[in-house]
C-alpha cells in the first residue's frame, strides 16, 4: 500500500505506548479535518500519553514516530532561560 503523505509531519498523542522493536503502539492524529488512529512504531519504547511527531508512513495505517516537544513551549518558561 502507498504511503499516507498527509500524516507525515503531524503530531499526535500515544493511546497505547510503543515498545521499540518489540512492537507498535497506537497514535491519535488530527489530520484531514478530523482525528484518525494509526499503529505507531518507534526506535525506543514511548509511554502512553506521549506527544510524538510522525516522521514516515509505512502504508496500511502504520507510521514511524519520534518523541516531540513543541519548541514554542520554551517561550512560556522562565525568562532567565531564554537565549
> Which CATH architecture?
Beta Barrel
- What is the arithmetic mean of pLDDT? 90
Would you give the CATH topology? OB fold (Dihydrolipoamide Acetyltransferase, E2P)
Classify the secondary structure makeup into a structural class.
Answer: mainly beta
Shape: globular
CA radius of gyration is 14 Å
Unreliable stretches (pLDDT < 50, length at least 5) are none
CATH class: Mainly Beta
Total individual domains: 1
CATH evolutionary superfamily: Nucleic acid-binding proteins
DSSP strand tally:
7
Strand/helix succession: EEEEEEE
Give the distance, in angstroms, between the N- and C-terminal Cα atoms.
45 Å
Beta percentage is over 45%
The number of distinct helices, counting runs of at least 4 residues, comes to 0
Q: Which features would summarize this protein structure in a list?
A:
83 residues, mainly beta, OB fold (Dihydrolipoamide Acetyltransferase, E2P), globular
Could you explain how this protein is built, in words?
The mean pLDDT is 90. This protein is 0% helix and 48% strand. By secondary structure, the chain is mainly beta. It starts with 10 loop residues before the first strand and ends in a 16-residue tail after the last strand. A hairpin with a 2-residue loop joins strand 6 and strand 7. The protein has strands spanning 11-16, 18-19, 25-31, 34-41, 45-46, 51-59, 62-67. The chain has one domain: Beta Barrel (OB fold (Dihydrolipoamide Acetyltransferase, E2P)), CATH 2.40.50.140. A five-stranded mixed beta barrel has the order 1-3-4-7-6. Strands 2-5 form a two-stranded antiparallel sheet.
Amino acid at each position: 500500500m502507498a504511503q499516507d503523505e498527509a500524516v507525515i509531519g503531524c503530531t499526535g498523542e500515544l493511546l497505547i505506548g510503543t515498545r521499540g522493536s518489540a512492537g507498535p503502539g497506537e497514535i491519535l492524529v488530527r489530520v484531514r479535518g478530523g482525528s484518525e488512529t494509526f499503529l505507531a512504531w518507534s526506535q525506543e519504547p514511548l509511554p502512553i500519553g506521549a506527544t510524538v511527531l510522525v516522521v514516515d508512513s509505512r502504508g496500511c495505517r502504520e507510521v514511524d514516530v519520534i518523541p516531540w516537544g513543541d519548541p514554542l513551549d520554551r517561550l512560556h518558561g522562565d525568562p532567565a532561560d531564554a537565549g
